[in-house]
Design goal:
single chain; mainly alpha; two-stranded antiparallel sheet; 4 helices; 2 strands; 41% helix; 8% strand
Length: 104
């Protein structure tokens, strides 16, 4: 699991968020469940009355990943839109986005 995905998933559990950003990044529901199971095995998350909660180790992992991924202040609660990134192209190339993929 990528560290960025791990950070997003831990924050989603912490703030009771929606997994839709991970689905839009191209992950399937089964993959997200597998990621959650990995985090449960690593004791970063725990189950309590059919709820998944973040542990103290999970909170420490968020702080560690924020430092490692160089996220400060606002970026602690605002995640970059990874699904909107495009591959680098040469400065002389022309980029025309696919009209069907635009969100506006």
């Amino acid at each position: 699991m990528q560290q960025e995905v791990k950070s997003i998933l831990l924050k989603l559990v912490k703030y009771n968020g929606n997994i839709e950003p991970l689905i839009q990044m191209g992950y399937e529901y089964v993959q997200v469940i597998n990621f959650l199971n990995i985090l449960l095995e690593e004791k970063l998350l725990t189950r309590d009355n059919n709820q998944i909660l973040i542990t103290e180790a999970g909170l420490n992992e968020i702080a560690f990943l924020n430092k490692k991924l160089n996220r400060k202040n606002a970026s602690l609660w605002i995640e970059p839109a990874v699904e909107s990134r495009v591959d680098k192209i040469d400065k002389n190339d022309v980029f025309l986005p696919n009209q069907n993929e635009l969100s506006f």
